[in-house]
Amino acid sequence: MVTTVRDGTVAEANDLNLPADLSVAGKVVLPGLVNGHDHLRSLLPFTRRSDTSALADLIEAGRLAGTAATAEDYRALTALASARQVLSGIVSAVDHVYPLHDEAMLRAVAEGHAEAGLRGQIAYGVSSAIDLDRAAAAADDVVPAERLYLAPVSLRQTSVADYRASVAAAERTGLRLYTHIAETLDEVERCQAEHGLRPIELLHGIGFLRPGTVLVHCVQVNDREIELLAENSVSVVYCPSNHLKLAKGFAPVLAMRDAGVRVCLGIDGMTDLFTEMRQAVYAQGSAAGRPGALTTESAWRMGTTDGSAAIGDNDPGLITVAADDVRLAPLVDPVQALVHRGSGPQVRDVLVDGELVVRDGALVKADLAELTERAWKATRGIAERTGKEVPADWNWQQN
């Protein structure tokens, strides 16, 4: 018999329909993990300079880097990040991509996902009418329409007029909507000063809230806004590590879930979904002043089945971990162990759309060293083109 975990429960089953050449003896079989929000192109290298950077500073640095990036940079950086995703057990991810100033960039992103075997959904960052036209043209050409969102970046970077235009475009094309919203107190205060409404109220008023819409963050929302999210069947992506790092506050996840809002998890530039699961448990417990306020099983569902439902992904795939991994042993309760002790490197196999993309901890479809070299070159090139001083030893041959 094979030990499996589904919906937070443990069972034994032999009906997994696995590839004939995949052995799961001595392993725990799990549903694939779902990352509801990320920016996989990683235009900014991860350095200690970001430790005290405000969100506005990071946004501006990312904007400058984006203007210097090429389509090949997008492909290289996306491919390496997609490799990190699948190696850590993520089967599906929503990649919020902007700026897209070159028509080849969107195709480059989709190709980067495919190189590693990630089932990527693309949230096309909207900042002008031309973005809406390009996104509509890409549906079922560059990426299947059911995996493409019209995604105004945020109220900080996209006008309300472009939000309205996105709603109209969604009605014409049937594409879903996606955005960052209610991320900081400053955003809420500015929205109230300019429009007389809080961010979620503003989106509701222009018809942005609808079944299939995905909102990222929702840290600063009140009870009435939570009611609007529930009434309109909107899904929310909670990114606990990102919120903690940037001191955004504690999203009212418990209240949203109690109201019937589907909440899933996003990595948003951090580590992996196992980390986000336990950060969700710990952060929500701290916010409530009560350990276990968000249960381990709830966090597990947020990273798996709730994530699949939130982004409309009907094929969760599967992953395996070794049952005798010393970091998990003794494996009395697999869900508890994985949420609180799990990490990406423990994943052994990943099956996406019936195809093995990770076998025994290694990529199947791509060479990791080659992906890393290309990403190094892209990062260095972007830095040089934006006038940054690049250390002489900053290269991909480092040991």
From TrEMBL:
Q: Which domain of life is it from?
A: Bacteria
One molecular function GO term is:
hydrolase activity, acting on carbon-nitrogen (but not peptide) bonds
> Which Pfam families does the UniProt entry name for this protein?
Amidohydro_1
The yes or no answer to whether the keyword Hydrolase is present is yes
Where do the Amidohydrolase-related domain residues begin and end?
28-357
InterPro entries given for it?
Answer: Amidohydro-rel, Metal-dep_hydrolase_composite, Metal_Hydrolase, MTA/SAH_deaminase
Keywords assigned: Hydrolase
Name this polypeptide is given: Cytosine/adenosine deaminase-related metal-dependent hydrolase
Annotated organism of origin? Kribbella solani
